[in-house]
Amino acid sequence: PSLFSELPRYQIDSVFALIADYIADTHPEKVSLGPGVYRDDQGAPWPLNVVEKVEKQLFEKNDAGRHEYLTIAGDGTFLELARDLCFGFGEGTPEEEKLKLKIASVQTISGTGANHMGALFLSKYLKPARVWISDPTWMNHHTIWELQGVERRTYPYYHAEKRAFDFEGMMATLEEQAEKNDVILLHACAHNPTGLDPTKEQWKAIADLCERKGLFPFFDSAYQGFASGNLTEDSWSVQYFLRNKPNMEMCLAQSFSKNFGLYGQRVGAFHLVSNEPSSELRESIKVNLCHLIRGEYSMAPRGGSTIVKTVLLDEQLKKEWQNDLTIMSDRIKVMRKALYDELQRLGTPGTWEHLVTQIGMFSYTGLTAAQCHALRGKHHVYMLDSGRASITGLTSENVVYVARAFDDVVR
Ligand code: PMP
C-alpha cells in the first residue's frame, strides 16, 4: 500500500462540488446560485469597465519591470492606498497620520491569504486560547483556524425563526464564555452567508464588549463598496473601532476579489492595528509578518495589485470604479426585488421580505436542505444546502423561472 493510503477524506468546500454538478447538468434552463462571483444580466463574468481600461493602459505602457518581484511585504504604494481605503483615511490630518503609525500592512494572496496570515501571526504571537466564529460563517474561516490548531468556538449569529441577526444570542454567549485575548472574527459588512449585518448601535455595543472583555477583533472585509455601493458605509464598523477604541488592538483581512472583480488575481492585504502610534513597533510587526511570508510564498503576485493601485492613485479612475461598484450593487438590489415581487405575485407561502432587506451578494433564503435538493433535482437551480443563494446568478431572463421553482419546492 501507498504511504498515503490512510489520508483523511476531506469534503472540500461544498460550493466547488456544487459548481461541478452545475457544469455537468445539461438542462437548458439550469441556474447557478452557488458561487460568490458577480455575473451580469446575461449571466456572464463582468470585468469592471475601469479594470479593462487600466489593463489596456498598462499593456500599452509596456513597462519592462512589470514582471519583476515585489518586495516581501508587497507593493508599498498599493498597501498605503488599500489601508487608506478600508480605514477611511483621506485628508492626512495630524490625527490621521498618528493612526497610520499604528497600522502594519502586508500584501497577501487575496482575502483568504490575509485571513491565513492573520491566523498564523496571532496563533504564534498572541496565542489566543480560542477563536470565536459566527454561526454560520464563510466555511473557510473554520479551515483556516483549524490549520493553526486554535480551538474554534461559535457564537450565535442567525435567528432562524425571525430570519434576523441574533444580536442578543451573540452578546450573551460572548459575555458569558469569551475570555481575554480570545480572537473574535467579525465580517466588516455583508455577512457571508446571511446577508445580515449589525446596526450601528449594535456595532457600538460589540466594540464595547470587545474592549471590556479584552477580546481581539479580527475583521474580515471582503465586500467593501460591493455591498451597498458606498465605500465608507461598508467600512463603517472598522472605522468606528479604529477611531473610538484607541487602546484596543485588532486586525483586518482585506480582499479586492469582489469589489474589483479580480477573483483569480488574488489581490489582498493584511493590516494589524496596535495600540501604539510607534514606527518602531510597526516595523517590528511588519518584519515578523515578512518572516512568515518569506517562508510561505515569498511575496504576493504583482498583476492584480498593480491594477488596483493604478485606479486608487487617480481621482478620475476612482470615480469610474465607484460607478462600476454602483452598477454591480444596483443590479443585485434589482434582482432581489424582482425575485421578491415574483414570489408575492405567485402567493408563495411564507414571508420573503428578507430577500430585499439582506445586503450583499448572498441571500439566506430560509429554504431547507430538502428544498434545496428538490430545487436541484427537479428544477436544475443550484444553491447550497444551507439555503444560501448567490443573488448575482439571477438575471431578468431567469428570475421568473427561479421564483416558480422556489414556489414549487416550498408548497
Ligand atoms: N472572507 C469572506 C467572508 C468571503 O466571503 C470571501 C470570499 N468568498 C473571502 C474572505 C476571501 O475571498 P478571496 O480569497 O477570493 O479574496
Please name the defining characteristics of this protein.
alpha/beta; seven-stranded mixed beta sheet; two-stranded parallel sheet; 15 helices; 14% strand; binds 4'-deoxy-4'-aminopyridoxal-5'-phosphate; pyridoxal phosphate
Explain how this protein is built.
With 411 residues, the protein is of the alpha/beta class. It has helices at 14-24, 49-61, 76-87, 94-100, 110-125, 139-147, 167-177, 200-213, 236-244, 279-296, 303-313, 315-346, 354-357, 369-379, 399-410, and strands spanning 31-32, 103-109, 130-135, 151-156, 158-159, 164-165, 183-187, 216-221, 250-255, 267-273, 362-364, 381-382, 388-390. The strands form four sheets. The chain has a seven-stranded mixed sheet with strand order 2-10-9-8-7-3-4, sandwiched between helices. The longest helix is centred in the last third of the chain and has 32 residues, at 315-346. The protein is globular, with a radius of gyration of 22 Å. The model has no long low-confidence stretch (mean pLDDT 96). Bound molecules: 4'-deoxy-4'-aminopyridoxal-5'-phosphate. 4'-deoxy-4'-aminopyridoxal-5'-phosphate is lined by residues 36, 110-112, 138, 187, 192, 220, 222, 255, 257, 263, 268.
Small molecules bound in the structure, each named once: 4'-deoxy-4'-aminopyridoxal-5'-phosphate
Described by the principal axes of the CA atoms, the overall outline is globular
Strand fraction equals: 5-15%
- Oligomer designation: single chain
**Main beta sheet strand tally, sense and closure:** 7 strands, mixed
Arithmetic mean pLDDT? 96
Helix content: 40-55%
Number of helices: 15
